[in-house]
Design a protein that fits this description.
heterotrimer; A alpha+beta (428); B mainly alpha (285); C mainly alpha (277); A: 428 residues; D-Maltodextrin-Binding Protein, domain 2; 6-stranded mixed sheet; 3-stranded antiparallel sheet; B: 285 residues; mainly alpha; MetI-like fold; two-stranded antiparallel ribbon; 76% helix
Chain lengths: 428, 285, 277
């Protein structure tokens, strides 16, 4: 490899070198937030507060550069060596990849981190965020549990007082809706809607939460082996397949412009708490909605888990002063600040005192819609620790399309093939 | 005198430098990459023929090659028939020829992104104009981009619409080189229009036909923006193009070695196809 | 065939077919422009004349993405590349036609060889080069790799061959140095070649999307086609048709204006690029 580097080096000298100003001094920090408007508000708040209280240790803040998805932008920044010191909003499924490439600071080597984490999270969460090498590279920061939103009046109209809980209940509701709202042989309303796109992360809103619910929080990947070839995956696939092949869910994208849920075209949707802000802004008058756990197989017992869309805090290796960065993150996660965060963004901090602390209680009293999410919060699962998790989701998504959307494969063989392809990816 | 000898070298120096850096080095480096696994952020790792083994078994890659061949097979005849027809129409003593030519050429100069966004609306299932036309003449609606069997043909139709203006011009140029005496001689022998077309016109525009073949082949293997914007490669990966798949493996998953392997393999396929086409066309001339 | 008189029937049919073609190529563009001006609800119809026109779709595009900034980026990138391509390609073409030197043939074959290489081969290593140079997210990545192209050299070489040597010799006797001869005498006499190379280069760079998507991730540095592609693919348009179409119109407009003014040059240049074989 030396040779190539030498050639590259020579070439670099041959060309006029582009002058990139080296960014951060020892005293300051560069922090990137996500570019979600509410999160920017919080970032601004916390940075201002920190800078006032810590003169001489200034934090500069910037939303992650606008572009493709934030995951892509971060990856490009890592590749290009232009990472910030601190980043919030790192998808938990990406951490193992960067950790293994040596791009993240092992936080457990910093003063006071272990105690902090034990204080914040219970042991299951700590286990979940511990990397395969035994180090911890992330602070579990926030979650958006995926649940089922439902249109209260819509369900009343078809004679349901409660949202469906099991697959059978959901399917029978779907059949009722389809039969009731037919016009000239065309379906006008649907039980729900799931994206038919194969983009890998779309499966966070259908297959993955359903799988976690059905299995009581099972993993997709264990070490370097795919472990999702089981009855839960098959049950999930066949449930979804029934929804699409019976036209209970539309296979075409619903016509643009209006939100299908708020316009009453669909009765339910699997989604996260961000839907509340959206619904409050755009709902027609008289529209009422509620949240319930997503459906489970009929024989399901025990605690119900779901996917949490976990986003975490990390410090990049390019940071000149990790200890300072860590102090900043500790401030970032202080109770009174996270209460502000919750107020500003409607996203849940991932901490165990969410339902016990007084300050949080006050918030939930004011925002009762958030309570189902908070109750679900202890039972969310973050993505497994695998450096190729994205690709695992990608192969699942490809089989999902074949089986669920186009009905070209049985759920059994689709799951089996997905596991087979995933194992090939994991072997790489 | 010394200075004069040096001048040409100074003149070509920028080219040589540019060539060394942006052509020669990448080509050589490609050949290094194919034997490695590398995501840029970790150290490079030698894997021997690992990437090629993976490629052999990668159904997505071969699907993308098949999709491309399918594109070429529809695109070439469509392009030829339409382009030659319009070129023949324009090769008559009529008025406003300049206007027609300019209009047909318009899609050629407009960015592919514009054309793609536009056609995405025309192809819409519920409200697209094409389906409204079909409903108007009481035909069933077509899932232009959502039906797995239709998606690639739809993209081909769009590509033809975008490019055909260029070929109209090229064929027109070709037609105008056909000596008038040949037609007059044929008239004397009592040949009909079709015979004249097959025996006189076609051979004369053969080089242009070859060019359509080659450019369609290269164009097919370069398809990117159309599926990227319209279908994301779906449904069922039927519009997954080779470049789109390289993009995904290279710039989404950062498998640089593997993406380079696909690049090298595709280069081989493209060059082989072009040589084949050349041989075939030459034999038939 | 051409001199013969055409029968009236044939004339009518020919015009009819040509007009159908015109409709097929022109109507979608007109519809796009009208739809971008129409209220959102009326877009899904054939009509070219909505009940009322409005700029709201355009205003929304301006609100959501930095269109003007990207337009500026595109201009900087396309113009600088065009400039350097004309300069460097003409220099090389000049050397190949007006000088005898060792390796001239080799250089010529290298150029032909380079032109026959599919871009898929060099895409990945070129990107890695950009990363190692630290050019990702800079103008350099968008421009420098395109500073010379083989087609430009071939076009200049072809044209320079037709310029009589006397001109060159006379200038030399007058004491002009070589650079002066090229830029003061040859290039002004090779306007068609310059225009062809300039149009081809400008259009190629202006319309390119793949390379910018790969090397530019920062919205402030994106070119116009890249920005609009990501806008169309991403969620920012919030699946509103009018907004998407308005962004497409804005992307098309500069090129269409240029085309309607320099139509002849566009057609001959682009047709000549096809004839390179």
């Amino acid at each position: 490899m030396k040779n190539i580097n030498a050639v590259l080096f020579l070439l670099t000298i041959l060309v006029f070198t582009s002058c990139k100003s080296s960014k951060n001094s020892q005293n300051g920090l560069l922090y990137w937030s996500s570019n979600n408007t509410d999160e920017i508000t919080y970032a601004r708040f916390i940075v201002e507060k920190w800078n006032k209280e810590n003169p001489g240790k200034e934090v500069k803040f910037q939303p992650v550069p606008e572009g493709q998805s934030s995951e892509e932008v971060i990856l490009a920044a890592v590749v290009g060596g232009t990472t910030p010191d601190v980043y919030s909003n790192m998808w938990q499924g990406d951490v193992e990849y960067y950790a293994r490439a040596g791009k993240l600071v092992a936080l457990d080597t910093l003063d006071g981190f272990i105690e902090f984490l034990a204080d914040r999270c219970d042991s299951a969460v700590i286990k979940e965020v511990t990397s395969r090498d035994g180090h911890i590279y992330q602070i579990p920061w926030k979650i958006n549990p995926i649940m089922m939103i439902y249109n209260v009046n819509f369900l009343k109209e078809i004679g349901m007082a409660k949202p469906p809980r099991t697959y059978s209940e959901f399917l029978s509701m779907a059949r009722t809706i389809k039969e009731k709202y037919q016009e000239n042989g065309r379906t006008k309303k649907w039980a729900g809607y799931a994206e038919v796109q194969v983009t890998w992360w779309q499966r966070w809103f259908d297959y993955y939460p359903l799988y976690l619910s059905a299995s009581g929080g099972a993993k997709l990947v264990e070490g370097d082996t795919a472990v999702f070839d089981n009855k839960y995956s098959v049950a999930t696939f066949s449930f979804l397949q029934k929804l699409f092949t019976n036209n209970y869910f539309p296979t075409d994208r619903l016509s643009s412009g209006q939100d299908p849920f708020l316009s009453g075209t669909i009765a339910t949707r699997f989604t996260g708490p961000w839907e509340i802000i959206h619904a409050e802004k755009f709902k027609p008058s008289g529209f009422t909605y509620g949240f319930a756990p997503i459906p489970v197989p009929d024989d399901h017992t025990g605690q119900q888990y779901t996917y949490g869309d976990t986003k975490n805090l990390v410090i990049f290796k390019t940071c000149g002063n990790p200890q300072l960065a860590w102090y900043f993150l500790r401030e970032f996660c202080k109770l009174e600040n996270e209460v502000e965060f919750l107020k500003m963004t409607n996203q849940l901090p991932r901490r165990k005192d969410l339902m016990t602390d007084k300050l949080f209680a006050k918030y939930f009293k004011k925002n009762p819609m958030m309570i189902p999410f908070a109750l679900q919060a202890p039972y969310v699962i973050g993505p497994d620790n695998s450096p190729v998790l994205k690709e695992v989701f990608d192969v699942i998504s490809a089989e999902y399309e074949q089986c669920v959307i186009y009905n070209k494969k049985s759920p059994e063989s689709a799951v089996k093939d997905a596991a087979h392809s995933a194992n090939l990816v994991l072997m790489q | 005198m010394q200075k004069k000898k040096l001048t040409p070298y100074l003149l070509i120096a920028p080219y040589i430098l540019h060539f060394a850096m942006f052509v020669a080095f990448p080509v050589v480096f490609s050949l290094v990459l194919v034997f490695h696994r590398w995501n840029i952020i970790s150290p490079m790792e030698f894997v021997g023929l690992g990437n090629f083994y993976r490629l052999m078994g990668d159904t997505f890659f071969w699907q993308s090659v098949i999709n491309t061949l399918y594109f070429i097979i529809i695109h070439v005849p469509l392009q030829l028939i339409i382009a030659i027809s319009f070129a023949l129409l324009l090769n008559q003593p009529l008025r406003m020829l300049g206007f027609f030519r300019a209009v047909y050429f318009l899609p050629v100069v407009v960015s592919g992104v514009v054309v793609t966004i536009l056609w995405q609306q025309l192809f819409g299932f519920e409200n697209g104009i094409l389906n409204r036309l079909l409903t108007l003449i009481s035909l069933p609606r077509v899932g232009w981009l959502t039906n797995p069997d239709m998606a690639m043909p739809s993209i081909t139709i769009m590509a033809t619409w975008k490019n055909v203006g260029l070929y109209v011009i090229l064929f027109l140029t070709g037609l105008q080189t056909v000596p008038e005496q040949l037609y007059e001689a044929a008239d004397l022998e009592g040949a009909n229009a079709w015979q004249k077309f097959v025996h006189i016109t076609l051979p004369m525009i053969n080089p242009t036909i070859f060019m359509v073949l080659v450019l369609s082949t290269i164009g097919g293997f370069s398809l990117f923006i159309e599926p990227y914007v319209m279908t994301g490669g779906g449904p069922l990966n039927r519009t997954l193009s080779s470049v789109l798949y390289i993009y995904k493996q290279g710039f989404f998953f950062y498998h640089m070695g593997y993406a380079a392997t696909m690049g090298v393999t595709l280069t081989g396929i493209i060059l082989a196809l072009v040589v084949l086409q050349k041989k075939y066309v030459e034999r038939n001339t | 065939m051409r001199i013969q008189k055409m029968s009236p029937a044939r004339k009518v049919i020919s015009y009819a077919l040509l007009l159908i073609g015109t409709a097929a190529f022109l109507y979608p563009f007109l519809w796009m422009v009208m739809a971008s001006l129409a209220p959102e609800k009326e877009i899904a119809s054939f009509t070219l004349f909505p009940s009322n026109f409005g700029m709201s779709s355009y205003l929304q595009v301006f609100e959501k993405i930095p269109v003007l900034h990207s337009f500026f980026n595109s201009m900087v990138v396309s113009l600088s590349v065009t400039f350097f391509v004309v300069v460097f390609s003409s220099m090389t073409g000049f050397a190949l036609t007006h000088y005898e030197f060792k390796g001239r043939e080799v250089v010529f074959y290298i150029i032909i060889f380079t032109m026959s290489l599919p871009f898929q081969l060099t895409l990945i290593p070129q990107y890695i080069l950009m990363v190692k140079f630290g050019w990702v997210d800079t103008y350099l990545a968008l421009t420098v790799p395109y500073f010379i192209n083989g087609l430009g050299i071939i076009i200049f070489r072809q044209y320079f061959k037709t310029i009589p040597r006397d001109l060159f010799d006379a200038a030399r006797i007058d004491g002009c140095n070589d650079m002066k001869i090229l830029f003061k005498i040859l290039l002004p006499n090779a306007k068609p070649a310059v225009i062809t190379v300039a149009i081809l280069t400008f259009m190629g760079v202006w319309n390119d999307v793949l390379w910018p998507i790969i090397v530019i991730r920062n919205e402030n540095l994106m070119t116009l086609p890249q920005l609009i592609t990501l806008f169309a693919v991403g969620g920012k348009a919030e699946s509103q048709l009018g907004v998407k179409l308005a962004s497409a119109v804005m992307l098309a407009l500069p090129v269409v204006i240029a085309y309607s003014v320099f139509q002849k040059y566009f057609i001959t240049s682009m047709a000549s690029s096809g004839l390179k074989e």
